[in-house]
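Quiz preparation item.
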């Protein structure tokens, strides 16, 4: 058994002799290097997700209609953020590579250009989002066929309109955090997101139910609380990156803020590849969400309770992927592709171990988890809980597959192999997942848990595709 574990996890076993360009770090040292970056990043994303779940729980006291009303705008909102997710994939990869190359000024120029680009684009997207709020919510599945549907649509329009006001702040904060992840400073991103989300929870308490003399605004209160939280996080991110002149990343108003053609070219090239992925993924999730909503408000509420757990478990893998992105990019910049391979494989191994622990937890505690998200005394709560807990069993089964795919995609992004990642994600999430959910709901007439089982099958294809690409080593030759 010890020999088997050594082959799976030991540094000497993970990089073939023919690929080694120098001495490898000791196994313990290599895992500590990953933990140094992944630890704060995992903590940031998991705690952020937990606080987001608390947000959902606070809305859950209002019943299934409120849960659906807050979650119907999720995919339209993610579509409005797609530009900035794509931009920041490029920012993280470029900044990581520049640090490895020792080009500090170019790294800082990258973040200045990215902030300006994010501000311009986010202002336009904000205006468009507010203008088309109602048509978007109807396109997402909102309707007025029943009294419940009409209540969900009304809440969804209000929530989406209000939260769209935060787009410029959100885009800038995402940009700063992406650059910090590139240099491995995940402690700052942890602080920024914790402040943002704690402020959000505080104002949720004050505004959703109308506590301590504040007005009872219900779903509108949840949206306003989110905007206040995002603005607070942005203020902290900008303060951190402008305060310390001796930190690796630093910007000030005295810097040159002109667009640089070469820098913008790198951002647009890598961000453009990621944009293919983001647009495809968001459209896929949009269609997927619409199909699930067609099953009824009860099924949609249960779907989103299970989705809260999926987001939480996903964030463990995403935190490890951040470490993979940073370490792979930095070591390729330092011309140590062997170390990039080592860290990519190690993040995958860590993801596998964590996924098995999470899978057991989700399966064993699914009922207590579901009870947290909806008041059992509200109408239809029992049916929501039964559907959600059955779907969580499916989620537990997919954990090792999901987390392996996410960890490997992070390593490939760190190498700048975004076009390959985008192509796989587009096929899997934009085509296969909606197709499988369509077959499950409209052809086979499956219930929610079986729909989850069939539609999440695309994760297996993702995991295999990313695994084969990483083993091929083709990502080592990508220019950034």
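Solution:
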């Amino acid at each position: 058994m010890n020999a088997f574990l050594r082959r799976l996890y030991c540094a000497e076993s993970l990089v073939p002799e023919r690929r080694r360009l120098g001495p490898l770090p000791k196994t313990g040292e290599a895992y500590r290097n990953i933990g140094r970056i992944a630890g704060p990043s995992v903590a940031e994303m998991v705690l952020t997700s937990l606080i987001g779940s608390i947000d959902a729980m606070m809305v859950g006291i209002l019943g299934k209609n409120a849960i659906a009303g807050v979650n119907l705008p999720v995919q339209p909102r993610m579509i409005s953020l797609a530009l900035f997710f794509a931009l920041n994939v490029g920012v993280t990869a470029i900044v990581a590579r520049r640090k490895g190359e020792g080009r500090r000024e170019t790294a800082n120029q990258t973040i200045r250009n990215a902030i300006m680009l994010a501000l311009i684009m986010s202002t336009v997207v904000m205006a468009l989002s507010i203008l088309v709020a109602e048509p978007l919510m109807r396109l997402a599945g909102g309707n007025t066929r029943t009294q419940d549907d009409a209540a969900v649509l009304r809440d969804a329009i209000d929530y989406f309109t209000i939260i769209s006001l935060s787009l410029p702040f959100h885009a800038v904060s995402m940009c700063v955090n992406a650059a910090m992840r590139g240099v491995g400073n995940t402690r700052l991103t942890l602080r920024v997101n914790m402040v943002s989300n704690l402020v959000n929870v505080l104002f949720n308490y004050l505004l959703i139910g109308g506590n301590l003399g504040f007005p009872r605004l219900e779903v509108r209160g949840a949206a306003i609380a989110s905007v206040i939280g995002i603005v607070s996080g942005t203020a902290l991110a900008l303060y951190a990156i402008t305060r310390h002149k001796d930190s690796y990343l630093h910007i000030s108003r005295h810097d040159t803020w002109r667009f640089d053609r070469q820098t913008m070219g790198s951002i647009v090239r890598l961000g453009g590849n990621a944009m293919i992925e983001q647009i495809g993924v968001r459209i896929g999730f949009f269609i997927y969400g619409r199909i699930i909503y067609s099953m009824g408000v009860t099924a949609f509420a249960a779907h989103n309770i299970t989705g809260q757990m999926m987001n939480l478990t996903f964030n463990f893998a995403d935190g490890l992927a951040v470490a993979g992105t940073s370490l792979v990019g930095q070591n390729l910049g330092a011309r140590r592709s062997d170390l990039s391979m080592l860290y990519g494989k190690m993040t995958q191994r860590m993801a596998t171990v964590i996924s098995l622990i999470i899978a057991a937890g989700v399966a064993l505690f699914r009922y207590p988890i579901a009870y947290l998200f909806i008041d059992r005394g509200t109408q239809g709560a029992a049916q929501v809980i039964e559907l959600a807990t059955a779907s969580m069993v499916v989620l537990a089964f997919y954990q090792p597959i999901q987390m392996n795919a996410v960890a490997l995609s992070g390593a490939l992004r760190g190498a700048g192999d975004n076009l390959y990642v985008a192509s796989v994600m587009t096929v899997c999430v934009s085509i296969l997942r909606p197709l499988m959910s369509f077959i499950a709901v409209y052809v086979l007439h499956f219930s929610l848990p079986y729909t989850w089982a069939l539609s999440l099958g695309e994760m297996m294809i993702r995991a295999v595709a990313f695994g084969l690409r990483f083993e091929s080593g083709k990502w080592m030759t990508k220019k950034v």
